[in-house]
Amino acid sequence: MRSKLPKxxxxxxxxxxxxxxxxxxxxxxxxxAEESSSLSVIRAINKEKPDLILLDLKMPKAGxxxxxxxxxxxxxxxxxxxxxxxxxxxxxxxxxxxxVEYFLVKPVNLRMLVxxxxxxxxxxxxxxxxxx
Length: 132
Description:
This protein is about 45% helix and about 15% strand. By secondary structure, it is an alpha/beta fold.
């Protein structure tokens, strides 16, 4: 039995996309936190304690790859689902090397997004002993 519903941190600088994702995640029973800037992701992780991060790659100041590199340097290993319209072969390779297993290409089918979130959270629960 779960003591709490999983929490998803949505990180995207596009407010329309972020709001659509937040609405669909809440409708599917998830708790949601949001960030519009990649620069405040680490602070949001520490405050919100998410079970999963939905992360855009292309954002002002620092992109998603830089966010994940910072997370890894700080030994933060929360599952990440990259949601981006900029998944080049090089980006894909760099993300795989950083341990990212889940990817969605924009424009995103919201049902597919929910399925990918569920898959990542179930994997975390089964393999990392998350207790969710």
